Amino acid sequence: MTYEATKEAKSIAKFHERYYNKDMATFISKSREDTENFARAYAKTLRAGDVVLLDGDMGAGKTVFSKGIAKGLDIQEEVTSPTYAYMNDYDGRLFHYDCYRIESVEQAEQLGLADYFDMGGICLIEWAQNIAPLLPKNVKRVKIIKSGENERTIEY
């Protein structure tokens, strides 16, 4: 293992240690509709300024979950994946990040991604490990695991 690979592995381990709660509750979703409806209900537990890390492999359902959050917040605008925009702003009430393509903390800083943490909206962040040094100390976490063709295990 190279020095850079070892350094990255240690960084990811530190991220998991800091942000993963071992006492998380679990919801089993049997469909996209279940996932969206669960997220709609979960949105009612969120407060202005909350930062939620959305964890899951590609295709796990993070965008479906985000659509449910938006509906739970009564946001009428269609929610789409911010893959190429890095962050979508929905009326200043919901900021949906996709940090998959962020190559460095410096890039995230140049894009001003951390500025939104203090704007009073709810921040949903996919691939948060790519901006870990910028994250606020207190965050919530939702992990979506694809456990079947349509089934998802949602830990929160």
What share of the residues does DSSP label as strand, in percent?
15-25%
Specify the oligomeric state: single chain
Helix content: 25-40%
Put simply, the count of helices is 4
* Text of the CATH class: Alpha Beta
What is the correct CATH architecture? Answer: 3-Layer(aba) Sandwich
Question: pLDDT average, as an integer?
Answer: 90
Distance between the termini: 34 Å
Task: Tally the beta strands.
Answer: 7
Keywords for this structure?
156 residues; alpha/beta; Rossmann fold; 7-stranded mixed β-sheet; 7 strands; 22% strand; globular
Write up this protein.
The longest helix is centred in the first third of the chain and has 17 residues, at 3-19. This protein has a 7-stranded mixed beta sheet, covered by helices on one side. The mean pLDDT is 90. The N and C termini lie far apart (34 Å). The protein is an alpha/beta fold and 156 residues long. The chain is built from 4 helices and 7 strands.
